[in-house]
# Entry
Amino acid sequence: MIKKIFAGIFLLAVVFLVGNEIDKRLSAQTIQEIADGPKILVLNYHQVNNNFSPLAVPVTAFADQMHYLVESGYVSITPSELADGLAGEITLPEKPVLITFDDGYIDNYTNAFPILKAQGLRATIFVIPSSIGSGNYMSWENLKEMEKNGITIQSHTMHHAKLEELPDDEIRKELLDSKNLLEEQLGHTVEFLAYPTGTYNLHIAGIAHDVGYKAAFTVKYGNVDLGSNMYALERVPIFQTESTMKNFFERVEYRQSFEEFGWIKK
Ligand SMILES: [Zn+2]
# Structure
């Protein structure tokens, strides 16, 4: 009996140690794959205007930033290209950037759109369907015109509610109603989501997956790579600061120094 118990313990110990070794080897391989894989800079803007709001980047600073991206060899991509690139289905450009805006403010159309168009840059705007056409927000016509010129419209939920405070059926409704309405109005599939205020958890991410989103963006700081969770994708937020342009350089360069020193997120 005692022999059997010892044999059992020995066997468990062997299984544990071997398992651990395999885990270590696998993770070393994974780390190498992540290091060698694509790194995608995802910028997150809200407003582009000269109102000195914390959410706003001044118009000239935004123009300088877009110019900097083009001059530095960044190539703007769509969220579908990001997903396909990470899945290995397409080859991404060497320096991919996904330029995103949250909420759908009118200045995205009046101020940012002409600059993006002039620089030949593509961008993605996560809109709140219940706000479209009201107050400070863009109209359906604005969105449709931009979609003909390199801008992709995706979902930021129906009402910008605090998802973590809602019961499951309402979370599902926020995610699905916005997706359905945008698809109906814009005539293309809506498969990408930005969580309102960037807040998410694994449970909300699971619902996003279940209702048909391919990926979702947070405001977790960092670049997207093969180690990223597709339902918790990193972004680099760009806000108004004392020196927005200096701050922008630092944020973009900081991302690169992460890579140089082999930084990974897991
Ligand atoms: Zn928002």
Summary: The chain has a mean pLDDT of 88.
